[in-house]
Amino acid sequence: MATETETAEEYVYYHQGGIPGRRPVLRGSKAYQTFEEIPLVDVTDITSPSFEARKAVADKVAKACAEVGFFYAQNHDVPQDVIDEIFAAIKEFFDQPNEEKMKVHIHKKVGFRGFEPLFETKLDSKTRGDMKESFLMGPDKTDAAQELPFPAHTGESVNNWPPNNERFRVAVTKYYNHLQRFSKELTRTFALALGMDEHFFDRMCTFPAGYVRPLHYPPQEVSGGEEPGIAAHTDFACFTVLCQGQVGGLEVLNKNGIWISAPPIPRTFVVNIADFMQHITNGYFQSTVHRVINKTGEERYSIPFFYAFDDEAELEVLPSCREEGKEYESVRVGEYIAHRFKISRTKHPDKAQVKHRGSLKERWGTLGRHNSGRSNTRRCRAGNNNHRRLEIDRPSIAAMAVFSLIIINKAGGLIYQREFQAGLQKLSTNDYLVLAGTFHGVHAITRSITPRIPTANPNPQTTSTPTTPSASLSWSLPEPGQPKTGIEVLETDRFRLTCFQTQTGTKFLLFTDPLMTNIDTVMKKVYELYADYVMKNPFYQLEMPVRCEAFDRHLGTWIRGRA
Ligand SMILES: O=C(O)CCC(=O)C(=O)O
Ligand SMILES: [Fe+2]
Protein backbone atom coordinates (compact mmCIF):
# COMPACT_ATOMS: atom_id res chain seq x y z
CA MET A 1 0.00 0.00 0.00
CA ALA A 2 1.30 3.48 -0.83
CA THR A 3 2.30 5.61 2.11
CA GLU A 4 0.83 9.06 2.52
CA THR A 5 4.06 10.78 1.52
CA GLU A 6 4.18 8.80 -1.72
CA THR A 7 0.67 9.74 -2.75
CA ALA A 8 0.30 13.24 -1.35
CA GLU A 9 0.95 15.95 -3.97
CA GLU A 10 1.93 19.46 -3.04
CA TYR A 11 0.25 22.25 -4.95
CA VAL A 12 0.56 26.02 -5.16
CA TYR A 13 -2.80 27.79 -5.51
CA TYR A 14 -3.25 31.09 -7.29
CA HIS A 15 -5.51 33.34 -9.34
CA GLN A 16 -4.42 33.63 -12.95
CA GLY A 17 -6.36 35.76 -15.39
CA GLY A 18 -9.00 36.10 -12.67
CA ILE A 19 -9.66 32.38 -12.35
CA PRO A 20 -8.35 30.08 -9.65
CA GLY A 21 -5.71 27.56 -10.60
CA ARG A 22 -3.11 25.34 -9.01
CA ARG A 23 0.30 24.04 -9.97
CA PRO A 24 2.02 20.93 -8.61
CA VAL A 25 5.36 21.47 -6.92
CA LEU A 26 7.91 19.51 -8.96
CA ARG A 27 11.31 18.57 -7.60
CA GLY A 28 14.23 16.33 -8.59
CA SER A 29 13.75 14.29 -11.74
CA LYS A 30 10.20 15.59 -12.24
CA ALA A 31 11.33 19.22 -12.42
CA TYR A 32 11.36 21.23 -15.66
CA GLN A 33 14.18 23.51 -16.66
CA THR A 34 12.90 26.90 -15.69
CA PHE A 35 14.07 30.19 -14.27
CA GLU A 36 15.61 30.44 -10.83
CA GLU A 37 16.21 34.15 -10.78
CA ILE A 38 14.75 37.29 -12.31
CA PRO A 39 16.83 38.57 -15.26
CA LEU A 40 18.31 42.03 -15.25
CA VAL A 41 17.97 44.19 -18.38
CA ASP A 42 19.84 47.45 -18.77
CA VAL A 43 17.26 49.83 -20.29
CA THR A 44 19.62 52.80 -20.79
CA ASP A 45 19.17 52.51 -24.56
CA ILE A 46 15.40 52.23 -24.90
CA THR A 47 15.30 55.73 -26.39
CA SER A 48 18.74 55.67 -27.97
CA PRO A 49 19.00 57.31 -31.43
CA SER A 50 20.58 54.07 -32.65
CA PHE A 51 18.06 51.49 -33.85
CA GLU A 52 20.58 48.69 -33.20
CA ALA A 53 20.94 49.79 -29.59
CA ARG A 54 17.16 49.89 -29.08
CA LYS A 55 16.79 46.51 -30.75
CA ALA A 56 19.48 45.01 -28.52
CA VAL A 57 17.44 46.01 -25.45
CA ALA A 58 14.27 44.65 -27.08
CA ASP A 59 15.90 41.26 -27.70
CA LYS A 60 16.79 40.93 -24.03
CA VAL A 61 13.29 42.01 -23.04
CA ALA A 62 11.80 39.44 -25.46
CA LYS A 63 13.79 36.64 -23.88
CA ALA A 64 12.87 37.70 -20.34
CA CYS A 65 9.17 38.08 -21.15
CA ALA A 66 8.95 34.73 -22.96
CA GLU A 67 10.88 32.73 -20.38
CA VAL A 68 10.08 34.47 -17.10
CA GLY A 69 7.48 37.22 -17.53
CA PHE A 70 9.51 39.42 -15.16
CA PHE A 71 12.69 41.45 -15.46
CA TYR A 72 14.53 44.14 -13.53
CA ALA A 73 14.79 47.35 -15.57
CA GLN A 74 18.14 48.81 -14.62
CA ASN A 75 19.20 52.38 -15.38
CA HIS A 76 15.74 53.72 -16.10
CA ASP A 77 15.56 57.50 -16.27
CA VAL A 78 12.93 58.31 -13.63
CA PRO A 79 14.75 60.76 -11.31
CA GLN A 80 15.68 59.42 -7.89
CA ASP A 81 14.37 62.55 -6.14
CA VAL A 82 10.90 61.92 -7.61
CA ILE A 83 11.04 58.36 -6.27
CA ASP A 84 12.36 59.41 -2.84
CA GLU A 85 9.63 62.03 -2.55
CA ILE A 86 6.76 59.65 -3.38
CA PHE A 87 8.04 57.09 -0.88
CA ALA A 88 8.24 59.80 1.81
CA ALA A 89 4.74 61.05 0.97
CA ILE A 90 3.10 57.62 0.97
CA LYS A 91 4.75 56.66 4.25
CA GLU A 92 3.35 59.83 5.79
CA PHE A 93 -0.09 59.01 4.35
CA PHE A 94 -0.19 55.39 5.56
CA ASP A 95 1.15 56.44 9.01
CA GLN A 96 -2.09 58.31 9.71
CA PRO A 97 -4.87 56.80 11.83
CA ASN A 98 -7.28 54.59 9.88
CA GLU A 99 -10.22 57.01 10.42
CA GLU A 100 -8.31 59.69 8.54
CA LYS A 101 -7.50 57.38 5.61
CA MET A 102 -11.07 56.04 5.50
CA LYS A 103 -12.22 59.55 4.53
CA VAL A 104 -10.96 58.70 1.04
CA HIS A 105 -12.08 55.09 1.02
CA ILE A 106 -12.68 53.68 -2.50
CA HIS A 107 -16.41 53.39 -1.85
CA LYS A 108 -16.63 57.18 -1.76
CA LYS A 109 -16.06 57.42 -5.52
CA VAL A 110 -17.05 55.48 -8.56
CA GLY A 111 -14.04 54.09 -10.36
CA PHE A 112 -12.44 52.39 -7.34
CA ARG A 113 -10.03 55.27 -6.65
CA GLY A 114 -8.78 55.95 -3.14
CA PHE A 115 -7.81 54.07 0.00
CA GLU A 116 -8.36 50.38 0.79
CA PRO A 117 -7.55 49.24 4.30
CA LEU A 118 -5.80 46.09 5.51
CA PHE A 119 -7.55 42.78 4.72
CA GLU A 120 -10.23 44.39 2.55
CA THR A 121 -9.30 42.51 -0.61
CA LYS A 122 -8.94 38.76 -0.41
CA LEU A 123 -7.21 37.02 -3.28
CA ASP A 124 -7.00 33.76 -1.35
CA SER A 125 -10.29 32.75 0.26
CA LYS A 126 -8.48 30.65 2.89
CA THR A 127 -6.97 33.80 4.44
CA ARG A 128 -8.58 36.64 6.36
CA GLY A 129 -7.64 38.94 3.48
CA ASP A 130 -4.53 40.48 1.98
CA MET A 131 -2.33 42.03 4.65
CA LYS A 132 -1.73 45.31 2.87
CA GLU A 133 -3.28 48.74 2.59
CA SER A 134 -3.30 50.70 -0.63
CA PHE A 135 -4.23 53.90 -2.40
CA LEU A 136 -5.23 53.94 -6.07
CA MET A 137 -5.09 56.89 -8.45
CA GLY A 138 -5.26 57.01 -12.21
CA PRO A 139 -6.08 59.03 -15.31
CA ASP A 140 -8.19 62.11 -14.74
CA LYS A 141 -9.28 64.27 -17.66
CA THR A 142 -9.93 67.20 -15.32
CA ASP A 143 -6.45 67.30 -13.79
CA ALA A 144 -4.18 69.82 -15.49
CA ALA A 145 -1.27 68.51 -13.38
CA GLN A 146 -1.40 65.28 -15.37
CA GLU A 147 0.28 65.46 -18.76
CA LEU A 148 -2.97 65.28 -20.70
CA PRO A 149 -3.03 65.05 -24.51
CA PHE A 150 -5.86 67.65 -24.52
CA PRO A 151 -6.80 70.73 -22.46
CA ALA A 152 -8.09 69.66 -19.04
CA HIS A 153 -11.84 69.15 -18.94
CA THR A 154 -13.96 70.94 -16.40
CA GLY A 155 -15.73 68.85 -13.79
CA GLU A 156 -15.08 66.83 -10.69
CA SER A 157 -11.91 64.79 -10.36
CA VAL A 158 -12.34 61.03 -10.56
CA ASN A 159 -9.42 60.63 -8.19
CA ASN A 160 -10.08 60.53 -4.48
CA TRP A 161 -7.29 62.68 -3.09
CA PRO A 162 -6.87 63.06 0.67
CA PRO A 163 -8.00 66.56 1.68
CA ASN A 164 -5.32 68.94 2.94
CA ASN A 165 -2.46 66.77 1.78
CA GLU A 166 -0.92 68.68 -1.09
CA ARG A 167 2.42 66.93 -0.67
CA PHE A 168 0.86 63.51 -1.34
CA ARG A 169 -1.09 64.68 -4.37
CA VAL A 170 1.87 66.45 -5.94
CA ALA A 171 4.35 63.63 -5.29
CA VAL A 172 2.04 60.90 -6.59
CA THR A 173 1.02 62.91 -9.67
CA LYS A 174 4.64 63.69 -10.54
CA TYR A 175 5.55 60.02 -10.29
CA TYR A 176 2.47 59.10 -12.33
CA ASN A 177 3.54 61.43 -15.16
CA HIS A 178 7.03 59.93 -15.26
CA LEU A 179 5.67 56.40 -15.26
CA GLN A 180 3.20 57.14 -18.06
CA ARG A 181 6.07 58.37 -20.18
CA PHE A 182 8.46 55.56 -19.26
CA SER A 183 5.77 52.95 -19.91
CA LYS A 184 4.93 54.36 -23.30
CA GLU A 185 8.62 54.08 -24.17
CA LEU A 186 8.50 50.49 -23.00
CA THR A 187 5.58 49.76 -25.35
CA ARG A 188 7.97 50.56 -28.20
CA THR A 189 10.52 48.14 -26.80
CA PHE A 190 7.78 45.51 -26.52
CA ALA A 191 6.68 46.16 -30.11
CA LEU A 192 10.24 45.61 -31.31
CA ALA A 193 10.53 42.57 -29.07
CA LEU A 194 7.46 41.15 -30.81
CA GLY A 195 8.93 41.70 -34.26
CA MET A 196 6.59 44.59 -35.08
CA ASP A 197 6.90 48.22 -36.02
CA GLU A 198 8.23 50.10 -32.99
CA HIS A 199 5.22 52.41 -32.99
CA PHE A 200 2.62 49.68 -33.39
CA PHE A 201 1.08 50.34 -29.96
CA ASP A 202 1.10 54.16 -30.24
CA ARG A 203 -2.44 54.27 -31.65
CA MET A 204 -3.66 52.44 -28.51
CA CYS A 205 -1.79 54.77 -26.15
CA THR A 206 -3.34 58.20 -26.74
CA PHE A 207 -4.83 58.49 -23.23
CA PRO A 208 -3.81 55.17 -21.73
CA ALA A 209 -5.19 53.82 -18.50
CA GLY A 210 -2.28 53.83 -16.06
CA TYR A 211 -2.71 53.48 -12.32
CA VAL A 212 -0.31 54.20 -9.48
CA ARG A 213 -1.10 52.11 -6.43
CA PRO A 214 1.15 52.81 -3.44
CA LEU A 215 1.12 49.86 -1.03
CA HIS A 216 2.03 49.37 2.60
CA TYR A 217 2.58 45.88 4.03
CA PRO A 218 3.00 45.67 7.80
CA PRO A 219 5.34 42.88 8.85
CA GLN A 220 3.55 39.63 9.54
CA GLU A 221 4.20 37.84 12.80
CA VAL A 222 7.29 35.82 12.18
CA SER A 223 6.10 33.02 14.46
CA GLY A 224 2.66 32.78 12.80
CA GLY A 225 1.80 30.90 9.60
CA GLU A 226 2.19 32.59 6.24
CA GLU A 227 -0.11 35.57 5.79
CA PRO A 228 0.00 36.91 2.27
CA GLY A 229 0.48 40.64 1.80
CA ILE A 230 -0.94 39.94 -1.66
CA ALA A 231 -1.89 36.33 -2.35
CA ALA A 232 -0.69 34.60 -5.52
CA HIS A 233 -2.08 36.27 -8.64
CA THR A 234 -1.32 37.65 -12.08
CA ASP A 235 -1.77 41.32 -12.89
CA PHE A 236 -4.56 42.07 -15.29
CA ALA A 237 -3.51 45.10 -17.29
CA CYS A 238 -0.82 45.21 -19.94
CA PHE A 239 2.31 45.28 -17.85
CA THR A 240 3.33 46.51 -14.40
CA VAL A 241 6.30 48.67 -13.51
CA LEU A 242 7.00 48.14 -9.83
CA CYS A 243 9.18 50.30 -7.66
CA GLN A 244 10.11 48.50 -4.47
CA GLY A 245 11.30 50.28 -1.36
CA GLN A 246 14.15 48.78 0.58
CA VAL A 247 12.25 45.86 2.06
CA GLY A 248 11.81 42.57 0.18
CA GLY A 249 8.92 40.12 0.06
CA LEU A 250 8.01 39.82 -3.62
CA GLU A 251 8.13 36.27 -5.00
CA VAL A 252 7.58 34.94 -8.52
CA LEU A 253 6.30 31.43 -9.29
CA ASN A 254 8.32 29.32 -11.69
CA LYS A 255 7.12 26.41 -13.78
CA ASN A 256 8.02 23.93 -11.04
CA GLY A 257 5.76 25.63 -8.52
CA ILE A 258 8.76 27.07 -6.66
CA TRP A 259 8.69 30.65 -5.39
CA ILE A 260 11.65 32.69 -6.65
CA SER A 261 12.48 35.77 -4.65
CA ALA A 262 12.63 39.17 -6.41
CA PRO A 263 14.42 41.31 -3.81
CA PRO A 264 14.69 45.07 -4.26
CA ILE A 265 17.72 46.15 -6.27
CA PRO A 266 18.52 49.85 -5.81
CA ARG A 267 17.62 52.07 -8.76
CA THR A 268 15.80 49.39 -10.70
CA PHE A 269 12.16 48.75 -11.47
CA VAL A 270 10.67 45.29 -11.63
CA VAL A 271 8.68 45.01 -14.87
CA ASN A 272 6.20 42.19 -15.28
CA ILE A 273 3.93 41.11 -18.09
CA ALA A 274 0.23 41.13 -17.24
CA ASP A 275 -2.81 39.37 -18.67
CA PHE A 276 -3.56 41.74 -21.59
CA MET A 277 -0.08 41.32 -22.96
CA GLN A 278 -0.21 37.56 -22.57
CA HIS A 279 -3.51 37.60 -24.41
CA ILE A 280 -2.42 39.75 -27.34
CA THR A 281 0.83 37.82 -27.76
CA ASN A 282 -1.14 34.55 -27.83
CA GLY A 283 0.75 33.41 -24.73
CA TYR A 284 4.21 34.15 -26.10
CA PHE A 285 4.79 36.65 -23.28
CA GLN A 286 4.01 35.22 -19.87
CA SER A 287 1.74 36.82 -17.30
CA THR A 288 3.49 35.18 -14.39
CA VAL A 289 2.02 34.41 -10.97
CA HIS A 290 3.53 36.34 -8.09
CA ARG A 291 2.78 37.24 -4.47
CA VAL A 292 4.10 39.25 -1.56
CA ILE A 293 4.77 37.90 1.92
CA ASN A 294 6.44 40.29 4.28
CA LYS A 295 8.33 38.14 6.78
CA THR A 296 11.13 40.66 7.20
CA GLY A 297 9.91 42.11 10.47
CA GLU A 298 9.94 45.58 8.86
CA GLU A 299 7.32 47.82 7.26
CA ARG A 300 7.31 47.30 3.50
CA TYR A 301 6.34 49.97 0.94
CA SER A 302 6.10 49.45 -2.79
CA ILE A 303 4.60 51.35 -5.70
CA PRO A 304 3.25 49.42 -8.67
CA PHE A 305 2.25 51.28 -11.81
CA PHE A 306 -0.25 49.27 -13.85
CA TYR A 307 -0.17 50.22 -17.50
CA ALA A 308 -3.02 49.44 -19.87
CA PHE A 309 -3.95 50.87 -23.24
CA ASP A 310 -6.71 53.38 -24.03
CA ASP A 311 -10.06 52.38 -22.52
CA GLU A 312 -11.54 52.11 -26.01
CA ALA A 313 -8.74 49.92 -27.40
CA GLU A 314 -9.74 46.44 -28.52
CA LEU A 315 -7.34 43.74 -27.40
CA GLU A 316 -6.86 41.38 -30.26
CA VAL A 317 -4.13 38.83 -30.80
CA LEU A 318 -1.32 40.59 -32.66
CA PRO A 319 -0.92 39.73 -36.33
CA SER A 320 2.61 38.51 -35.66
CA CYS A 321 1.41 36.07 -32.98
CA ARG A 322 -1.56 34.38 -34.65
CA GLU A 323 -1.64 30.74 -35.56
CA GLU A 324 -3.16 29.24 -38.66
CA GLY A 325 -6.71 28.02 -38.20
CA LYS A 326 -7.24 29.45 -34.70
CA GLU A 327 -9.94 31.94 -33.79
CA TYR A 328 -9.36 34.71 -31.28
CA GLU A 329 -11.70 36.90 -29.32
CA SER A 330 -11.22 40.55 -28.64
CA VAL A 331 -11.87 42.39 -25.37
CA ARG A 332 -12.24 46.12 -24.82
CA VAL A 333 -9.71 47.48 -22.32
CA GLY A 334 -12.06 49.67 -20.26
CA GLU A 335 -14.72 47.00 -19.95
CA TYR A 336 -12.25 44.36 -18.89
CA ILE A 337 -10.61 46.61 -16.28
CA ALA A 338 -14.00 47.53 -14.77
CA HIS A 339 -14.92 43.86 -14.59
CA ARG A 340 -11.69 42.88 -12.87
CA PHE A 341 -12.02 45.67 -10.29
CA LYS A 342 -15.57 44.62 -9.57
CA ILE A 343 -15.07 40.90 -9.10
CA SER A 344 -12.69 41.44 -6.23
CA ARG A 345 -14.64 44.33 -4.66
CA THR A 346 -18.14 43.03 -4.30
CA LYS A 347 -19.29 45.72 -1.88
CA HIS A 348 -18.45 48.71 -4.02
CA PRO A 349 -21.52 50.80 -4.95
CA ASP A 350 -20.22 50.98 -8.52
CA LYS A 351 -21.22 47.36 -8.90
CA ALA A 352 -24.76 48.50 -9.44
CA GLN A 353 -23.79 49.79 -12.87
CA VAL A 354 -24.66 46.66 -14.82
CA LYS A 355 -23.76 47.15 -18.42
CA HIS A 356 -26.19 46.69 -21.26
CA ARG A 357 -24.70 43.96 -23.34
CA GLY A 358 -27.11 43.86 -26.26
CA SER A 359 -29.51 41.12 -27.16
CA LEU A 360 -28.31 37.97 -28.76
CA LYS A 361 -29.92 39.06 -32.01
CA GLU A 362 -28.06 42.37 -31.95
CA ARG A 363 -24.85 40.57 -31.21
CA TRP A 364 -25.19 38.05 -34.05
CA GLY A 365 -24.63 41.19 -36.07
CA THR A 366 -21.05 41.44 -34.80
CA LEU A 367 -20.23 38.01 -36.21
CA GLY A 368 -17.24 38.03 -38.46
CA ARG A 369 -15.84 41.24 -37.02
CA HIS A 370 -13.65 39.38 -34.57
CA ASN A 371 -12.85 36.71 -37.10
CA SER A 372 -11.56 38.92 -39.85
CA GLY A 373 -8.03 38.55 -41.08
CA ARG A 374 -7.59 35.09 -39.67
CA SER A 375 -6.21 33.54 -42.81
CA ASN A 376 -2.60 33.85 -43.72
CA THR A 377 -1.52 33.73 -40.10
CA ARG A 378 1.78 32.69 -38.65
CA ARG A 379 3.50 32.16 -35.34
CA CYS A 380 4.86 35.00 -33.31
CA ARG A 381 8.06 36.19 -34.91
CA ALA A 382 9.37 37.83 -31.79
CA GLY A 383 12.88 39.21 -31.44
CA ASN A 384 14.59 35.91 -30.79
CA ASN A 385 12.68 32.90 -31.99
CA ASN A 386 14.84 30.45 -30.13
CA HIS A 387 12.88 30.89 -26.89
CA ARG A 388 10.77 27.91 -26.04
CA ARG A 389 7.14 28.75 -25.29
CA LEU A 390 6.19 27.76 -21.76
CA GLU A 391 3.03 25.87 -22.57
CA ILE A 392 2.04 25.23 -18.97
CA ASP A 393 1.63 28.91 -18.26
CA ARG A 394 -0.71 29.67 -21.12
CA PRO A 395 -4.28 29.86 -19.96
CA SER A 396 -6.17 32.41 -22.00
CA ILE A 397 -7.52 35.27 -19.93
CA ALA A 398 -10.73 34.58 -18.04
CA ALA A 399 -12.67 36.58 -20.58
CA MET A 400 -12.13 33.79 -23.06
CA ALA A 401 -13.54 30.96 -20.99
CA VAL A 402 -16.44 28.71 -22.00
CA PHE A 403 -17.39 26.97 -18.79
CA SER A 404 -20.16 24.53 -19.72
CA LEU A 405 -23.04 23.64 -22.02
CA ILE A 406 -26.53 22.32 -21.29
CA ILE A 407 -29.11 21.25 -23.88
CA ILE A 408 -32.79 21.15 -22.91
CA ASN A 409 -35.46 19.48 -25.05
CA LYS A 410 -38.75 21.12 -25.90
CA ALA A 411 -40.46 19.55 -22.87
CA GLY A 412 -37.89 21.00 -20.43
CA GLY A 413 -35.92 17.77 -20.02
CA LEU A 414 -32.13 17.85 -19.72
CA ILE A 415 -30.68 15.96 -22.67
CA TYR A 416 -27.01 17.01 -22.57
CA GLN A 417 -24.62 18.49 -20.03
CA ARG A 418 -20.88 19.03 -20.40
CA GLU A 419 -18.16 21.00 -18.60
CA PHE A 420 -15.16 22.42 -20.44
CA GLN A 421 -13.06 23.72 -17.54
CA ALA A 422 -11.43 21.86 -14.68
CA GLY A 423 -12.24 23.10 -11.19
CA LEU A 424 -15.86 24.21 -11.73
CA GLN A 425 -18.28 23.82 -8.84
CA LYS A 426 -20.15 20.57 -9.38
CA LEU A 427 -23.94 20.23 -9.32
CA SER A 428 -25.64 16.93 -8.60
CA THR A 429 -27.54 15.26 -11.45
CA ASN A 430 -30.73 16.18 -9.69
CA ASP A 431 -29.69 19.85 -9.53
CA TYR A 432 -29.01 19.83 -13.28
CA LEU A 433 -32.46 18.39 -13.94
CA VAL A 434 -34.03 21.05 -11.70
CA LEU A 435 -32.00 23.77 -13.44
CA ALA A 436 -33.18 22.58 -16.87
CA GLY A 437 -36.84 22.34 -15.81
CA THR A 438 -36.83 25.67 -13.97
CA PHE A 439 -35.10 27.53 -16.79
CA HIS A 440 -37.56 26.02 -19.26
CA GLY A 441 -40.51 27.25 -17.16
CA VAL A 442 -39.11 30.73 -16.60
CA HIS A 443 -38.20 31.01 -20.28
CA ALA A 444 -41.80 30.22 -21.25
CA ILE A 445 -43.17 32.78 -18.79
CA THR A 446 -40.82 35.51 -20.00
CA ARG A 447 -41.93 34.83 -23.56
CA SER A 448 -45.54 35.24 -22.59
CA ILE A 449 -44.98 38.51 -20.74
CA THR A 450 -43.31 40.24 -23.71
CA PRO A 451 -45.02 43.63 -23.52
CA ARG A 452 -47.13 44.79 -26.38
CA ILE A 453 -46.84 48.39 -27.44
CA PRO A 454 -49.71 50.72 -28.28
CA THR A 455 -50.37 51.48 -31.93
CA ALA A 456 -52.93 53.93 -33.25
CA ASN A 457 -56.13 52.15 -34.23
CA PRO A 458 -56.75 52.91 -37.91
CA ASN A 459 -60.53 52.31 -37.59
CA PRO A 460 -61.67 53.74 -34.28
CA GLN A 461 -65.28 52.84 -33.59
CA THR A 462 -67.53 55.81 -33.90
CA THR A 463 -69.52 56.20 -30.76
CA SER A 464 -71.66 59.01 -29.52
CA THR A 465 -69.84 58.96 -26.16
CA PRO A 466 -66.38 60.48 -25.86
CA THR A 467 -63.66 57.76 -25.80
CA THR A 468 -60.70 57.49 -23.45
CA PRO A 469 -57.36 57.77 -25.27
CA SER A 470 -56.71 54.03 -24.78
CA ALA A 471 -59.95 53.07 -26.39
CA SER A 472 -58.68 54.42 -29.72
CA LEU A 473 -55.45 52.43 -29.52
CA SER A 474 -54.70 48.85 -30.37
CA TRP A 475 -51.77 46.84 -29.00
CA SER A 476 -49.16 44.97 -30.90
CA LEU A 477 -45.80 43.25 -30.37
CA PRO A 478 -42.84 45.55 -31.13
CA GLU A 479 -41.82 43.52 -34.22
CA PRO A 480 -44.97 41.62 -35.20
CA GLY A 481 -43.11 39.41 -37.70
CA GLN A 482 -40.54 38.29 -35.10
CA PRO A 483 -41.27 35.49 -32.63
CA LYS A 484 -41.12 36.38 -28.93
CA THR A 485 -37.80 35.21 -27.56
CA GLY A 486 -37.98 34.68 -23.78
CA ILE A 487 -34.83 35.10 -21.67
CA GLU A 488 -31.69 35.21 -23.75
CA VAL A 489 -29.08 36.22 -21.18
CA LEU A 490 -28.70 35.87 -17.42
CA GLU A 491 -25.61 37.23 -15.80
CA THR A 492 -23.72 37.20 -12.51
CA ASP A 493 -20.35 38.74 -11.72
CA ARG A 494 -18.59 35.51 -12.58
CA PHE A 495 -20.47 34.00 -15.46
CA ARG A 496 -23.02 34.64 -18.14
CA LEU A 497 -25.69 32.19 -19.19
CA THR A 498 -26.71 32.62 -22.81
CA CYS A 499 -29.74 30.78 -24.18
CA PHE A 500 -30.37 30.02 -27.81
CA GLN A 501 -33.66 28.36 -28.71
CA THR A 502 -34.12 26.58 -32.04
CA GLN A 503 -37.31 26.79 -34.10
CA THR A 504 -38.31 23.38 -32.74
CA GLY A 505 -37.94 24.45 -29.11
CA THR A 506 -34.57 22.89 -28.20
CA LYS A 507 -32.62 25.20 -25.92
CA PHE A 508 -28.82 25.52 -25.79
CA LEU A 509 -27.52 27.11 -22.58
CA LEU A 510 -23.89 28.22 -22.65
CA PHE A 511 -22.14 29.27 -19.45
CA THR A 512 -19.21 31.57 -20.19
CA ASP A 513 -17.16 34.34 -18.70
CA PRO A 514 -19.31 37.50 -18.59
CA LEU A 515 -16.76 39.43 -20.65
CA MET A 516 -16.60 37.04 -23.56
CA THR A 517 -17.44 39.19 -26.55
CA ASN A 518 -18.39 36.69 -29.25
CA ILE A 519 -20.49 34.08 -27.56
CA ASP A 520 -22.56 34.14 -30.71
CA THR A 521 -19.74 32.52 -32.67
CA VAL A 522 -19.45 29.77 -30.09
CA MET A 523 -23.21 29.26 -29.95
CA LYS A 524 -23.42 29.07 -33.71
CA LYS A 525 -20.63 26.50 -33.85
CA VAL A 526 -22.22 24.41 -31.07
CA TYR A 527 -25.46 24.40 -33.02
CA GLU A 528 -23.71 23.43 -36.26
CA LEU A 529 -21.97 20.52 -34.53
CA TYR A 530 -25.27 19.46 -32.98
CA ALA A 531 -26.95 19.56 -36.42
CA ASP A 532 -24.09 17.62 -38.03
CA TYR A 533 -23.39 14.98 -35.42
CA VAL A 534 -26.62 14.60 -33.46
CA MET A 535 -29.48 15.41 -35.82
CA LYS A 536 -27.88 13.56 -38.71
CA ASN A 537 -27.07 10.53 -36.55
CA PRO A 538 -29.53 7.81 -37.70
CA PHE A 539 -29.54 6.26 -34.20
CA TYR A 540 -30.48 9.47 -32.43
CA GLN A 541 -34.09 9.65 -31.28
CA LEU A 542 -35.43 13.20 -31.13
CA GLU A 543 -35.93 14.67 -27.64
CA MET A 544 -33.90 11.86 -26.03
CA PRO A 545 -30.57 12.27 -24.17
CA VAL A 546 -27.70 13.03 -26.55
CA ARG A 547 -25.16 10.22 -26.51
CA CYS A 548 -23.16 10.76 -29.67
CA GLU A 549 -19.44 10.18 -29.39
CA ALA A 550 -18.68 12.16 -32.57
CA PHE A 551 -20.54 15.21 -31.19
CA ASP A 552 -18.60 14.99 -27.89
CA ARG A 553 -15.31 14.66 -29.68
CA HIS A 554 -15.79 17.48 -32.19
CA LEU A 555 -17.25 19.80 -29.57
CA GLY A 556 -14.38 19.14 -27.15
CA THR A 557 -11.75 19.63 -29.83
CA TRP A 558 -13.29 22.85 -31.07
CA ILE A 559 -13.73 24.40 -27.63
CA ARG A 560 -10.20 23.41 -26.58
CA GLY A 561 -8.79 24.76 -29.84
CA ARG A 562 -10.23 28.20 -29.08
CA ALA A 563 -8.52 28.47 -25.68
O1 LIG B 1 4.19 45.07 -3.74
C1 LIG B 1 4.70 44.37 -4.61
O2 LIG B 1 5.92 44.14 -4.62
C2 LIG B 1 3.87 43.72 -5.66
C3 LIG B 1 2.47 44.25 -5.74
C4 LIG B 1 1.61 43.50 -6.67
O3 LIG B 1 1.87 42.40 -7.09
C5 LIG B 1 0.35 44.11 -7.15
O4 LIG B 1 -0.04 45.17 -6.61
O5 LIG B 1 -0.28 43.54 -8.05
FE1 LIG C 1 0.74 41.99 -8.87
UniProtKB/TrEMBL annotation:
Is Thylakoid set as a keyword in this record?
A: no
Q: Where is this region: Disordered?
A: 450-480
* Similarity comment text for this entry: Belongs to the TRAPP small subunits family. TRAPPC4 subfamily. Belongs to the iron/ascorbate-dependent oxidoreductase family.
SUPFAM superfamilies, per the entry: Clavaminate synthase-like, SNARE-like
A GO biological-process term: small molecule biosynthetic process
Residues of the Fe2OG dioxygenase domain: 208-309
Q: What is any one of the record's Gene Ontology cellular component terms?
A: TRAPP complex
Membrane recorded as keyword? no
Q: Which domain of life is it from?
A: Eukaryota
Question: Pfam families recorded for this chain?
Answer: 2OG-FeII_Oxy (PF03171), DIOX_N (PF14226), Sybindin (PF04099)
Which keywords does this Swiss-Prot/TrEMBL entry list?
A: Endoplasmic reticulum, ER-Golgi transport, Golgi apparatus, Transport
Q: What CDD domains does the database record attribute to this sequence?
A: TRAPPC4_synbindin (cd14856)
Q: What protein am I looking at? A: Fe2OG dioxygenase domain-containing protein
